[in-house]
## 1
Amino acid sequence: MDDQAQVVEVQRRRSRAEAEQVAGEYEGSGLSRVEFCRKHGLSLATLARYRKRRAQDSRVPGNRWVAVEVSGSRPSAQTGAGSGLWVALPSGRRIEVGRGFDSHTLVQLLGVMER
């Protein structure tokens, strides 16, 4: 059977947050579209729709600039020595990931935070 013409069992509708999470999981998976869809029971068209919506939703309105501070100092033991990077959000929340972090887990975290 041709990989492009798959029949997939119809499942319940996913919420917008769930669809966003699936698209993020695909992008961090390293799998081909066909492999990912087979593994997760999705049609190629559904994955394409989720990815398109995610790309549209992630655009920053007005192409705003975001302030970035680069630190040349070594992280202290208190801030998690070996940390790869961190992002401080305007709300005061901070996301910090170490070198070699699990991108799948980060995608899940961001999906939860955006709900």
Note: The radius of gyration is 18 Å.
## 2
Amino acid sequence: MTDIADLTATELAAGYRRKALSPVEVTEAVLGRIEARADLNAFITVTSQDARAEARAAEARMMAGEDLPPLFGIPYSVKDLINTAGVRTTMGSRLFKANVPKEDAVAVARARKAGAILIGKSTTPEFGHVQSPTSPLFGRTLNPIDAGVTPGASSSGAAVAVAAGMGPLALGTDGGGSIRIPAACCGVVGFKPTLGVVPHLQLPDLFGANSFVGPMARTVADAELLFAAIAGADPRDPYGQAATMLHEPGRPSLEGLRIAWIAQGGARVQGEVASITGRAIRALEAEGARVETTEIDFKSYEPAFLTLLRVGLAARTGPLTKGREALVSQSLLDTIALGEACSGVDLARATAARTVLFQAMQSLFGRFDLVVSPTLTAPPLPIDIDPTRDIMIEGHNEGTVRGAWYPFTFPQNLTGHPAISLPCGRTSNGLPVGLQLCAPWYRDRALLKIASTIEDILA
């Protein structure tokens, strides 16, 4: 019999509507799993008292026969970079260890309105600045599949929580792959929506935004359930003025679907990853998809991505660290220093490169319905790897972690296109491998439906 904590969100929703499950017992089961797997260090704050009170209130509504909202009684976690009213939001930093926001972020407010029960705040590196599941504030988060490899970052705790049954849903943020990378490392689903479709008003520069809020789950159906609740226009977001998403009813066949397969993206892809993702592509072809191998040198855009990342972090967090350097990690201080050293010309060139990449992606979508690639070039890296150093892939020094390990994920942060990572197999050592699907702007719902079909094919 499946443990209650391992039920999907869609299973919980169906159970509530039959009155076959209790929000109280579900919440207790999830809190029990969090306590039992405290070794994974997925949470910095567990909101057990509030969650139990919300569960009791939800159960009273259910027993009274009231209409139930779409996320009714479903426990979920929120990455600790996302504001939660009345609940500590630390940004993974000792600078914010006592920070308690007065207002929910847009996505949190919408999830709350849809009936979800906040179970806690998940771990993240400081300000999400580095591809490492560690922080001076909370320590290290472990991968539930193999503690010797990274769970990915920066939505580390979110992915671990979902994978280990500590809530079927999670909200993460993605500034360069920070939802999709941990999803691939932990064998779950991670979805980065189109820019503006899920408003993210915490960003200081909304016009130059490249960080996104999105769902993480164990199945595409669950990710779609959370996405439906948090998506929608907001006049305060310049890209969210009319976030109209085309709706395609039903589960689409892959027959005739035009897929651009980008197998390398200018980087070296480890042999097993290439083999596993290649098999996945052949499975899609067998279902009638029309696959054409093509290439964009994604890796070559790493300097532009790094400039935008470093300048943004320097502007946002640099002033916070002055005189308090002892409280923050050296890697954050180094990133701030690199950002402060960039000139206005450097920033303008990076923005221009972002435009060129967007146009290249748009050109592909003139001929294809979907762009597919591995999510990562290699399986999860060793847990103790230095994320600021070069990495080796099959005996070759391939350069920095960002360009060498995830050249497929940061491009969509620059271009704004929606992208989702799906599990597509395991290596001989049992480590998960992800397949990334990318669609045109505002085709989020269509992408999720196609992803659901592909999920079934690859199961």
Note: The chain is about 35% helix and 15% strand.
